[in-house]
Amino acid sequence: MTNEKIDEILEEIKLEMEESIESLKRNFKTLRTGKVGLSVLDNIFVNYYGSRTKLSQVATVLSTDASTISITPWEKNLLAEIEKSIQIANIGVNPTNDGSQVKLFFPPMTTEQRKDNVKKAKTMTENAKVSVRNHRQDANTAIKKLEKDKLITTDESKLAQDSVQKLTDQYTLKAEESFKSKETEIMKV
What is the DSSP letter of 30? Predict the structure, then answer.
């Protein structure tokens, strides 16, 4: 029975750490690389009849080439709202409204912009690692409580904490590997 409690804690922490890594990868998608991806618009919301709605839910968004994104709203009256939302989001380009769609022309990234995006990616990675370590702390606290309540022995507690540390090391390494991959992608010309 006691090992079940430890197994539950370990299973839960593994899921939480996995979510931290997935969140990191989603955040990475908002960073621009050499080729413009539609994910640069993921965090843009439009006022659609009084509610905050994702851009992708009110328009067709297409990448027409490596440096251009075309946004065609499903309702023409949204053109100005989409244009305004993009300007507010400050994604590094000014939208061009031709009366039927909004186009975004991304200039090639400078070395400075690339380095800046690598710094942003590094910060995102550090935040993910902090999240992983916080999950480790929560799990260790739960394990120590089981030991204090005499539900597990000191040896079982130590073994469980060692398992938690192995998971922490594993997910910290995953975060670092994700960063290295993203850094390579950003710096590739």
Answer: T
